[in-house]
Amino acid sequence: MPLVPTSSIVDAAREARVGAAAFNVIHLETAEALVTAAERTGIPLILQISENCIRYHGSLLPITRATLALAEGSTARIAVHLDHITDADLVRQGITAGVGSVMVDASALPYEENVATTADLAAWCHERDAYVEAELGEVGGKDGVHAPGVRTDPDEALAFVRATGVDALAVAVGSSHAMQERTAVLDKDLITALHTALPVPLVLHGSSGVPDEELRRAIAAGMTKINISTHLVSVFTHSIRRTLGADPSLVDSRKYVKPAREAVAEEAARLLGVLGTPATVLGRYATQASARG
């Protein structure tokens, strides 16, 4: 199937009030697992390649071309997206290589510089029909906009969107990057306020630390694109540990990577179902729970 535009997945999810799943690629095996999950469920998926992933592989083209090839050869509706890109050259390389969207991350810069950098790259991308996500941030914060305790102001967010022309905005509502426990509680009132104030879809980074039902509530409140990386990386790694622990004599990496790839495919498929649950269904869950009460 031809590559699907990120905008089509995000816009359809926003209209249906479901989550647009965006899962990060780490290497070829995780990309294969994620594509398998999309094919098994029939739910659209955005494959994300981060700047950290690109640095790990040494350059953009090998992992990007492999991911694009998997997406284009799949029967599922899949988009490919660059995530947390701070290097303008990588933005240009990725879009030129065929990636359909990018998250321009200038959030570590002072506000005015963030606006100027993001607006410039957004204009360049839009000339090439590419979709652009961005975020606000705090100077000096290791995790930028998603450092613990940081929150997005709706008025500032609206001004940022108008000044930059971005198509989607990552907002800080209580999640944090690289959480290994799913214990985060999100500010659903703030999500609703941001959803009401902004003309573009909202993006939740750091979703690995958010429990299933909290993700559903966030989507019902107005969140659209849901980014997950660390949780699926953990599934992959824990599977390898189990396999090697059961047979320390294993040396053929295919024999411990294959079950890890399958474990990621299973969990990614489950998460696609979680994120694809409509808000109306969530409302029925809440009603049934109350009745059981």
UniProtKB/TrEMBL annotation:
Organism: Streptomyces glebosus
Protein name: Fructose-bisphosphate aldolase
Entry note: cofactor: Binds 2 Zn(2+) ions per subunit. One is catalytic and the other provides a structural contribution.
Entry's Gene Ontology BP terms: carbohydrate metabolic process
Record key words, sorted: Metal-binding, Zinc
Signal peptide start-end: none
SUPFAM superfamilies for this protein: Aldolase (SSF51569)
Binding site for Zn(2+) 2: 105, 135
GO MF assignments: aldehyde-lyase activity; zinc ion binding
Keyword Zinc appears in the UniProt entry: yes
InterPro entries (UniProt xref): Aldolase_TIM, Class_II_FBP_aldolase, FBA_II
Binding site for Zn(2+) 1: 84, 177, 205
Cofactor(s) in the UniProt record: Zn(2+)
Catalytic machinery residues: 83
Keyword flag Manganese: no
